[in-house]
Amino acid sequence: MTAPNTAPTERSPIARFIRRTVAALLLGIVFFGILWATVFNAVTSAIVASGGAVVLVAGSSASEGFQSIFEAIAEFILGIFGAIADFFSSIFD
């Protein structure tokens, strides 16, 4: 009898890119909301937030160290949103 393979499976590059993009989009939306509510008007906030999201995705694609940090942040943020969705799903189900 053989032991089951317990090594983590490697995600495809497309799935990793989509995951990073979604996390950057969520961070950009939060950043936009904070900037708009505090200092800037809507246009300036949108430009700054979209630029920050593009830098996050481009940097995570170019640098291995930055990619691992951003993947951890993406896992955390998307995990929180998943937990919130599960909570509301259990309430309204």
Any descriptors?
93 residues, mainly alpha, 3 helices, 82% helix, flat
Give an account of the 3D structure:
This protein is mostly helical and 93 residues long. The chain has one domain. The chain is flat. It contains three helices and no strands. The chain has helices at residues 13-38, 42-62, 64-92. The longest helix has 29 residues, at 64-92. The N and C termini lie far apart (42 Å). Helix 1 packs antiparallel against helix 2 (42-62), helix 1 crosses helix 3 and helix 2 (42-62) packs across helix 3.
Overall residue-averaged pLDDT value: 75
Q: How many DSSP-defined strands?
A: 0
Helical segment count: 3
Report the sheet-strand fraction. under 5%
Low-confidence stretches: none
Tell me the domain tally. Answer: 1
What is the helix fraction of residues, given as a range? over 70%
Q: What are the secondary-structure elements, in order, as H or E?
A: HHH
3D shape: flat
For the record, give the distance between the C-alpha atoms at the N and C termini, rounded to a whole number. Answer: 42 Å
Radius of gyration: 17 Å
What does the main sheet amount to?
none
Structural class of the secondary structure composition? Answer: mainly alpha
